[in-house]
């Protein structure tokens, strides 16, 4: 089994990594591509560098309870710092690489981080542009290009020098880190995870050593997601921001907890290539990623030559059917579907999955936002064991999951064994209670009091219901529920996801609160619609120009009509407008995790919204 | 679990057989090649053995012309040098008419043939380093004429026009290849010998072109000025290309007449040079496997056209019968094929293979 004897009182990710370095020193822990070659890091090297980072942090004056911020894409140094920080009993604060200066300023100031690990010149510039940061003492930069010999700020330290400080400190006091780790207590805050903040400013979720330990035991060691549980034979691709709890689980904690080999993607643009190379066995994606892969497959098969189009088009339609059968059977094959799949595997599915890098995936999961059942079925039909899971930062992402073989499409699955979950009778809100419930929002006891009640129940803010008494179905975020002027309750996410399941639609925001009928703002997917325009000989220049084409509007209209046919009259989108630009984090329309900030979008495009309600009832 | 694209080292990245598919197909190809002597008749095996030798020569030309970008029409000259070095070394020392040293050991005369030709290449190379394109082609053309003249008139070495001399005797540690044995016929033995030699020289060439030298050659080919700017010693690499190419030509020349057993001095003419250029162009410029394909194609072509009279009655087997003869058809086909490939498939047979491979490799998408 993959459980590791823990030698300190509280098992932290630091002690887990150290134990792996002792028991399996030469097994590969991390791989990162550098100049075309995947550089390997063994558990021994991993712990050695993390320990150096820990020594360096002590040398820089980081005390228990301090915060260390990391502003970087996923890379080895991210995990070294995270593990080192936990080892010295400080808390890691992850910043999204896309965070604009103002948000970086807010997060650094609010968290009071003492040390910032910044990836490159871009992130260093952001930190240096902020005036008033009394707590920030040191900025460690990982990539020296453009910084070394050019920047004079006394707080700057190069990563190599940072490690050299650690080496010096280790030579002088080799037990310093071990002593710190022995002092660690279960209620130490090990990380602050700032929630995306679709409504207000981001709030820092304090996760303690106990929370993380519970999550690792529940999700990793007891195999809360995968069956059998993850092991050193598994590998994952780390490509979603590590500041998000989901990626922290899949690449940080799956690694430390189960010895899974973590591969770092070069960037979000190269995920497709990296997937093809790495062929991970466990893959977690947000709905946006799955939608994009699915749309890519459909478009690329359609644009292939006639023979390929004919053969693979046929097998994709068969996959639809297989997906339907699997969805109806909890993810298990019937004899007929297995036979059809076996033939399709020879002609299409094997090669297709290999091309998109999913051939070795034994467990695929979608979470962090609701996903359309069509997308899940599509992947299930291709032979990908697809599972929708549910959790939130505030409960360390431990709540429910569809278990292999017991999948119910359209639900988020069953509560994990160690989780108490109930649905509030009056409001329909989902409540959870378990040792993973967070310690509170950082410096915001009022907000904390609002979500954790006296009995220790966490109010998730999601409205849900039981499906067949075992699975949980989520209707929507409580605050997003639309109450129309006619008094009907409508869950917009269901309609939005149905729209987004079309390869042509990237974003959909359904509007209708206190209105006579529902409308939608729709953002087209530039790649696929651009391709569609090209094949229909429709010239266009920019995204805005493409969105304004009557032909494109007609194309989206067909999608909307299709979706409307599946919903009740009150839930039908009567009118829509296409967004003239791609939504962007920088402009405050998306959160760092690419979630739409509903109110911001509605304000920014108020003119479009009003134009849909102008001119009398339709 | 195998992840062929997860390159953990440059060695793995640059490996010749870097994917399982390549490994499997190479194994299958190897097994078929070894099984052929037991499946085909001896006359076909002789043609195939000749094709193997021609492949070595074509690889040599491809190194200088395909990889190095230096057009050489002088390949026949170097082939001739190799042929006569080998023939003279293994020739009968007691003969009064011809030079002969009686060294019949194959490795010795093969290496010597290569070295002599390579040395000649090295002598010519400084010229090549100064010239480019058409001028280089004309200079190397001159070599062929000089060679032809020498071969025709140095009777002690070549036996003279119309007479010729016996080719080199293939013998390895006392084992004779060129005579029928108890287990194998002469053709079977020669085919296997040439196959092994082709594999050896093919792998050597493949290793050369994927090394620093190969990359430098390609840089010189693509733009010599740019190559010089990025630090490639253009003169040095042009000389290396010529020397290696001539070495390969020498080796091929030494082996080329072993099957027939006889060398005629008139054969090392412009026509032979053009034939090798055709192999490179039809096979695929700057590819080793393309050179082999091209050599196979060109060598097997006469064999195929010879079957034509049976199918198409207006083609006659000999010039006496009137109408169009197979030899004329052959010449026309050469011309048509070269033109056709240059226009429609500049990457040659290898390009077609790549296209087919990509089609299936990219399944189920287009790219």
TrEMBL record, chain A:
Q: Which SUPFAM superfamilies does the record cross-reference, listed alphabetically?
A: Acetyl-CoA synthetase-like
Keywords assigned by UniProt? Fatty acid metabolism, Ligase, Lipid metabolism
Q: Which domain of life is it from?
A: Bacteria
Cited Pfam families: AMP-binding, AMP-binding_C_3
Q: What is one cellular component GO term in this UniProt entry?
A: membrane
Q: Which GO terms describe its molecular function?
A: long-chain fatty acid-CoA ligase activity
Q: Give the reaction(s) catalysed.
A: a long-chain fatty acid + ATP + CoA = a long-chain fatty acyl-CoA + AMP + diphosphate
What the record says about family reads: Belongs to the ATP-dependent AMP-binding enzyme family.
Q: What is this protein called?
A: Acyl-CoA synthetase
TrEMBL record, chain B:
Q: Name one Pfam family in it.
A: BPD_transp_2
Where in the cell is the protein located? Cell membrane
Indicate yes or no for the key word Iron: no
The protein's topology relative to the membrane is: Multi-pass membrane protein
Q: Which InterPro entries match?
A: ABC_transp_permease, LivM-like
Might you report a single GO cellular component term?
Answer: plasma membrane
Cited CDD domains: TM_PBP1_LivM_like
Q: Name one GO molecular function term.
A: branched-chain amino acid transmembrane transporter activity
Keyword Protein biosynthesis (UniProt): no
- Per the UniProt record, which residue ranges are transmembrane? 21-39, 45-64, 71-89, 109-127, 134-151, 190-209, 240-263, 275-301, 308-327, 333-354
Question: Which keywords annotate this record?
Answer: Cell membrane, Membrane, Transmembrane, Transmembrane helix
Q: What is the protein named?
A: Branched-chain amino acid ABC transporter permease
């Amino acid at each position: 089994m993959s459980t590791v004897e823990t030698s300190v009182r509280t098992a932290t990710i630091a002690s887990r990594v150290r134990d792996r370095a002792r028991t399996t020193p030469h097994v590969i822990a991390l791989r990162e591509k550098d100049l075309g070659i995947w550089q390997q890091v063994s558990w021994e090297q991993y712990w050695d560098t993390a320990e150096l980072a820990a020594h360096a942090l002590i040398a820089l004056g980081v005390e228990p309870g301090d915060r260390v911020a990391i502003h970087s894409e996923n890379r080895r140094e991210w995990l070294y710092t995270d593990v080192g920080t936990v080892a010295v009993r400080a808390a890691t604060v992850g910043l999204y690489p896309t965070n604009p200066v103002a948000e970086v300023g807010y997060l650094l100031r609010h968290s009071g981080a003492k040390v910032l690990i910044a990836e490159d010149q871009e992130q260093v510039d952001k930190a240096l542009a902020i005036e008033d940061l009394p707590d920030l003492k040191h900025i460690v930069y990982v990539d020296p290009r453009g910084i070394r010999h050019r920047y004079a700020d006394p707080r700057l330290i190069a990563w190599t020098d940072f490690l050299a400080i650690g080496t010096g400190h280790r030579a002088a006091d080799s037990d310093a880190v071990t002593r710190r780790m022995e002092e660690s207590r279960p209620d130490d805050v090990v990380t602050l995870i700032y929630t995306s903040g679709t409504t207000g400013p981001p709030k820092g979720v304090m996760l303690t050593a106990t929370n993380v330990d519970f999550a690792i035991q529940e999700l990793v060691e007891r195999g809360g997601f995968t069956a059998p549980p993850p092991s050193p034979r598994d590998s994952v691709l780390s490509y979603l921001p590590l500041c998000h709890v989901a990626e922290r689980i899949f690449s940080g904690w799956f690694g430390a907890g189960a010895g899974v080999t973590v591969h770092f993607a070069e960037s979000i643009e190269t995920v497709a290539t990296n997937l093809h190379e790495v062929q991970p066995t466990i893959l977690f994606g947000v709905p946006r990623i799955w939608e994009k892969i699915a749309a890519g497959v459909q478009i690329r098969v359609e644009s292939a030559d006639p023979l390929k189009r004919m053969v693979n088009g046929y097998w994709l339609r068969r996959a639809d059917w297989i997906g339907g059968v699997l969805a109806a059977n909890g993810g298990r094959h019937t004899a007929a579907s297995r036979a059809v799949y076996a033939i399709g595997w020879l002609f299409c599915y094997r090669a297709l999955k290999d091309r998109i890098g999913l051939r070795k995936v034994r467990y695929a999961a979608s979470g962090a936002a609701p996903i359309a059942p069509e997308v899940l079925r599509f992947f299930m039909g291709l032979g990908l064991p697809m599972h929708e899971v549910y959790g939130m930062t505030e409960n360390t992402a431990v709540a429910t999951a569809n278990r292999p073989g017991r999948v119910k499409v359209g639900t988020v699955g069953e509560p994990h064994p160690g989780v108490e979950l109930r649905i509030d009778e009056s409001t329909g809100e989902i409540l959870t209670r378990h040792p993973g419930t967070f310690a509170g929002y950082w410096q915001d006891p009022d907000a904390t009091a609002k979500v954790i009640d006296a009995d220790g129940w966490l109010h998730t803010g999601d409205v849900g219901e039981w499906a067949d008494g075992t699975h949980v179905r989520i209707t929507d975020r409580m605050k997003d529920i639309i109450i129309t002027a006619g008094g009907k309750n409508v869950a917009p996410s269901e309609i939005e996801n149905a729209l987004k399941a079309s390869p042509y639609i990237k974003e959909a925001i359904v509007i209708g609160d206190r209105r006579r009928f529902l409308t939608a703002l729709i953002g087209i997917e530039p790649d696929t619609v651009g391709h569609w325009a090209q094949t229909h000989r429709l010239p266009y220049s920019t995204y805005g120009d493409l969105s304004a084409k009557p032909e494109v509007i007609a194309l989206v209209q067909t999608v909307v009509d299709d979706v409307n046919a599946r919903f009740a009259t009150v839930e039908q989108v009567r009118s829509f407008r296409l967004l003239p630009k791609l939504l962007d984090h920088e402009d405050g329309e998306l959160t760092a995790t690419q979630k739409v900030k509903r109110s911001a979008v509605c304000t920014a495009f108020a003119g479009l919204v009003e134009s849909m309600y102008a001119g009398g009832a339709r | 679990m195998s992840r062929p694209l997860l390159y953990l080292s440059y060695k793995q990245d640059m490996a010749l057989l870097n994917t399982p598919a390549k490994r499997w197909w190479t194994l299958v190809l190897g097994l078929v090649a070894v099984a052929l002597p037991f499946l085909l008749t001896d006359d076909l095996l002789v043609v195939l053995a000749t094709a193997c030798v021609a492949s070595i020569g074509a690889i040599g030309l491809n190194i200088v012309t395909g990889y190095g970008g230096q057009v050489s029409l002088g390949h026949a000259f170097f082939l001739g040098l190799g042929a006569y070095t080998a023939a003279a070394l293994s020739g009968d020392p007691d003969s009064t008419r011809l030079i002969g040293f009686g060294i019949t050991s194959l490795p010795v005369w093969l290496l010597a043939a290569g070295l002599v030709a390579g040395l000649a290449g090295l002598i010519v190379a400084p010229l090549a380093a100064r010239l480019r394109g058409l001028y280089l082609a004309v200079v190397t053309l001159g070599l062929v004429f000089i060679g032809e003249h020498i071969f025709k008139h140095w009777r002690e070495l070549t036996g003279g026009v119309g007479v010729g001399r016996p080719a080199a005797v293939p013998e390895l540690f006392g084992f004779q290849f060129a005579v029928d044995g108890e287990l194998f016929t002469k053709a079977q033995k020669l085919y296997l010998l040439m196959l092994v030699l082709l594999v050896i020289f093919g792998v050597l060439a493949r290793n050369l072109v994927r090394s620093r030298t190969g990359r430098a050659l390609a840089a010189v080919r693509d733009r010599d000025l740019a190559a010089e700017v990025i630090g490639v010693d253009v003169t040095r690499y042009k000389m290396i290309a010529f020397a290696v190419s001539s070495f390969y030509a020498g080796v091929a020349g030494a082996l080329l007449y072993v099957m027939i057993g006889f060398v005629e001095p008139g054969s090392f003419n412009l026509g032979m040079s053009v034939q090798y250029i055709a192999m490179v162009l039809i096979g695929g410029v700057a590819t080793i496997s393309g050179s082999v394909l091209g050599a196979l194609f060109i060598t097997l072509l006469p064999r195929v056209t010879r079957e034509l009279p049976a199918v198409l009655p207006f083609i006659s087997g000999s010039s006496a019968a009137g109408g169009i003869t197979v030899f004329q058809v052959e010449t026309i086909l050469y011309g048509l094929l070269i033109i056709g490939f240059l226009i429609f498939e500049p990457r040659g047979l290898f390009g077609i293979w790549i296209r087919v491979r990509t089609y299936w490799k990219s399944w189920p998408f287009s790219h």
